[in-house]
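cron nightly-structures :: item 1 of 1
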Amino acid sequence: MGCSSSSTGNKKSEKVLKATLVIQNWYRGYRARLKARQHYALAIFQSIEYADEHGQMQLSNFFTFMLENCSRARKEDPELVSRLFESTFQDIKDRQEYVGLIDVPDSYEGPRLEFPLTFTDINHLLEAFKQQQILHAHYVLEVLFETRKLLKHMPNFTHVKTSPSKEITVCGDLHGKLDDLFLIFYKNGLPSGNNPYVFNGDFVDRGSNSVEVLMILLVSFLVYPNDLHLNRGNHEDFMMNMRYGFTREILFKYKLHGKKILQILEEVYTLLPIGTIIDNEILVIHGGISESTDLNLLHRLERSKMRSVLMPPVSINRGHATDSKKSKGDITVTSSGKVKSNGFPSQQLSKHEWEQVVDILWSDPRGRKGCYPNTSRGGGCYFGPDVTSKILNKYQLKMLIRSHECKHDGYEICHDGKVITIFSASNYYEEGSNRGAYIRLSYGMNPRFFQYRVTSSTCMSPLHQRVHAMETSAIRILKERIISRKTDLMHAFQLRDHSRSGKISIAQWAFSMESILGLNLPWRSLSLRLVNIDTNGNVDYMSSFQDVHIEKPVKEVQSTLIETLYRYRSDLQIIFNVIDSDHSGLISMEEFRAMWKLFRTHYSVDIDDSQVDELANIMDLNKDGSIDFNEFLKAFHVVHKYEKLNTSNAKFANYK
């Protein structure tokens, strides 16, 4: 009887154990599928981000093209070249010209700063920004002028020392995410003589509080110039700000004095140090290195001449530089090949110096050996572990700390522990997409990593809901990229659809998507979210464009033109904003035509000028000979027919 009872108990235990194993295996598989979907979503976000940066870097080629064709450009617009290539620095006179004429009214209820600044001002600023108050333009300009004065006396690389009793904290990209900065200071303490920091570039752009982040960092720098160190990132660049939001933020928050702020800010960027060296053994720079990185050259070059990565030194037709009596706006070339204009000293680095700075601001590490072009971003290089070892050994360094890349955990260690990537903006792409992190370093000790994530109600939701939200957002922006290349994709699909059935294999579809979009994505896996697939595994390629289209401001306009203007809208808007030096928001029809002809020629856009002229004439609503170019481009936007599809749940379930 006892044996029977024992046997029954053993069978029940075995069933429980089997059920437990089944549940565990299912859950592990479920978590793995969620992680895979999260990985795919992050891949989409990052690929499109890098593709946009690649497009941004290509603008430098366009500006070079414009300068090399400056004689032609002068005929269309005599002042165009000077507006593009002349430094605005000489227009900045003195503090009184900018700050003294701006009164702070008694009705102003925001933070008031007292110069010289003290720790109390940092606290006032933090508390005010927590209450979503705006710092008055008077104080913003004061801070920028004070920062400019102090930065002028700083070296290209700041050398700092630590000790077992005095650590230093290194933070990566913040990108205008004020809550992340608040959280860092809450967890790690405010900057002080006993709590030094290095902020490794990309303080601004993308996030909605770039002004506030920048002001906190600059005020802290003015209070503790020997203990808070600011490195220039690739987004501390006025041309990058035009695309990624900081320029718009300043002009929105400071409608009356925004232009003055942008003007002095442009110079402040050029004066930021380009790196920090800790204990003579740790190099902290924003991007990375290349096999030709020359730290000795980088130590001594005139960093203030690096106005923008997007405006490289160029050689122009020397035939235009023979007459020494040039009128205003003319450009000459010095014997060293540098550009010079209007009798002012050259505002450019040499080409070699420029390339050195681009490499340290834009490069990324990879596992493959060697140094090769950074094809994703279009600027800098990919550098392998052998390059890291070579450069570190050459300059007796032990480690490279860089930022520049969003990492899921907020940091990443590679190249046998010699390269650390640190990224401090959590939820960078979407709620829950990544953690932020910072590093604490002290002499003779291993780096210590601290991770965090700014939380909200959505971050507390179950993992599958957060992954679904992130994935939906990623698919949305990917569909927008797909629809902008509809004509090219259709041509690629039809070349492979020999039977004209409207269907091709998944392999053919994936190859077409990659060859046209160039995003390096797992297209086969993503196909379940993007297209309809029949029981034979063939793709209905027209379904690539379902539920989304580009709004046409005029029905008669050709689809090819609409797609082209949509695809290049950011580039065109930046060029317009550079030309629109008075920020009037208007561009004459003549300026529009001249700009478009140069743009079309350089980018090899196969669209007849008459089509663009016709469209521009239609968009000139009041027929005054000018158009609001920003509004003109906003007319071309992607419409998602169904924002929330209940039927997508079935597809979503299959995708799991």
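cron nightly-structures :: done
Residues 552-636 form a domain with the Recoverin; domain 1 fold (CATH 1.10.238).
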